[in-house]
From TrEMBL:
It is a peripheral membrane protein. GO terms for cellular component: ATP-binding cassette (ABC) transporter complex, substrate-binding subunit-containing. It holds the Pfam family OB_MalK. It is found in: Cell inner membrane. GO terms for biological process: carbohydrate transport. Belongs to the ABC transporter superfamily. Keywords: ATP-binding, Cell membrane, Membrane, Nucleotide-binding, Translocase, Transport. This is Carbohydrate ABC transporter ATP-binding protein (CUT1 family). It comes from Martelella mediterranea. GO terms for molecular function: ABC-type transporter activity; ATP binding; ATP hydrolysis activity. InterPro entries: AAA+_ATPase, ABC_transporter-like_ATP-bd, ABC_transporter-like_CS, ABC_transpr_MalK-like, ABC_transpr_MalK/UgpC-like, Mo/tungstate-bd_C_term_dom, NA-bd_OB-fold, OB_MalK-like. Residues 4-235 form the ABC transporter domain.
């Protein structure tokens, strides 16, 4: 196992496209680090630079104590798992898993021992003599994982390994990969565009946008204290509701309505005091909005309901908020025409609100997020 350190990494292509800008963070020995962000943010490029599949234009990359900027991929002691399983269709599962050991000229007895161990860990023992064409997508992904495991590398690098699986199998496989990584305690760098995948799997998560690192932190801290508007909106599903607002004294003016703010809010967020009587961007997470008739909260807004989606354990209520909507800058986000002032609340399934109602919505003001409208950075 080994730590991985990125210090001011840059990647500029021949057409002068600057894909990665001064990327810096450390990955501890045995840590599961997830790189997440929208399409084209640079996460796969960063992973390929760690692997040695992309050259480094500037900065320094260390694996363990060794600077590896100019070290060949085969000499970096890493194993990659790709989006495509890249299995040999004419070889059995046993032969696919053993292939990297064959190339490394590992003796037969040790090869058999390692293949058997990987098959046991990945529950592939009944399938060792089958060909990949006779396996399910999840089983093929396990074979690809097994091929990486047998090498006993210093680090695993995984590039969207679950993106070819259906939704149900993705949930199962992400739990299996996370459990496997905890068992093996191998340093792992995992790339995904799925923020739910990132939040449920990573010890820490690095959020990228346009080749810039936005924030690197634990999933909980990313959710509770996002560094800026982009991270606030990108982390969480449904996304954070973002609006232009104004702090007027001890209250928040949102459109034509006012929310009273508690004294405790000002105490816990000292940076917010400097924005009194100034415009701000306010973020409200869906779970901090509730049907007022079912909530003990006293701060409420009167909002028209445009759509109700009952999901059994919860109800997603779409609301037309009378305030200017703020675009978080996610290029993958789709905002339907005419819905730029919409909000989504996560209501109890006991709620009786219906499409077309004017609902009384309770807001947990202690959980509001505030951002500077110029810098778009969080105000704490």
């Amino acid at each position: 196992m080994a730590s991985i350190s990125l210090h001011n990494l840059n990647k500029v292509y021949g057409d002068r496209f600057h894909a990665i800008h001064d990327l810096s963070f450390d990955i501890a020995d045995g840590e599961f680090m997830v790189l997440v962000g929208p399409s084209g943010c640079g996460k796969s490029t960063a992973l390929r630079m760690i692997a040695g599949l992309e050259s480094i234009t500037g900065g320094e990359l260390r694996i363990g104590e060794r600077i590896v900027n100019d070290v060949d991929p085969k000499d970096r002691d890493i194993a990659m798992v790709f989006q495509s399983y890249a299995l040999y269709p004419h070889k059995t599962v046993r032969e696919n898993i053993a292939f990297p050991l064959l190339m490394a000229k590992v003796d037969k007895a040790e090869t058999e021992r390692r293949v058997a161990e990987a098959a046991r860990i990945l529950q592939l023992e009944p399938h060792l003599d089958r060909k990949p064409g006779h396996l399910s997508g999840g089983q093929r992904q396990r074979v690809a994982m097994g091929r990486a495991i047998v090498r006993k590398p210093a680090a695993f690098l995984m590039d969207e390994p679950l993106s070819n699986l259906d939704a149900k199998l993705r949930v199962q496989m992400r739990a299996e990969i996370a459990a496997l990584q905890r068992e093996l305690k191998v340093t792992t760098v995992y790339v995904t565009h799925d923020q739910i995948e990132a939040m449920t799997m990573g010890d820490r998560v690095a959020v990228l946008k346009d080749g810039y690192l936005q924030q690197v932190d634990t999933p909980k801290n990313l959710y509770d204290r996002p560094a800026n508007v982009f991270v606030g909106a990108f982390i969480g599903s449904p996304s954070m509701n973002l609006y232009e607002a104004t702090l007027d004294g001890d209250s928040l003016t949102l459109g034509n309505q006012t929310l009273a703010l508690s004294e405790n809010l000002w105490k816990t967020r000292p940076s917010l005091r400097g924005s009194r009587n100034h415009p701000v961007i306010v973020g409200i997470r869906p779970e901090d909005m509730e049907d007022a008739s079912l909530s003990g909260l006293t701060t409420t807004l009167d909002i028209p309901v445009t759509l109700v989606e009952s999901l059994g354990a919860e109800v997603l209520v779409h609301l037309a908020v009378d305030a200017p909507f703020v675009d978080a800058g996610d290029p993958d986000a789709i905002v339907a025409e005419g819905s730029t002032n919409r909000a989504v609340g996560r209501f109890s399934p006991k709620s009786q609100v219906k499409t077309g109602d004017r609902a009384r919505v309770a807001i947990d003001t202690e959980q509001l997020h505030f951002f500077d409208p110029k810098t778009r950075e969080s105000l704490w």
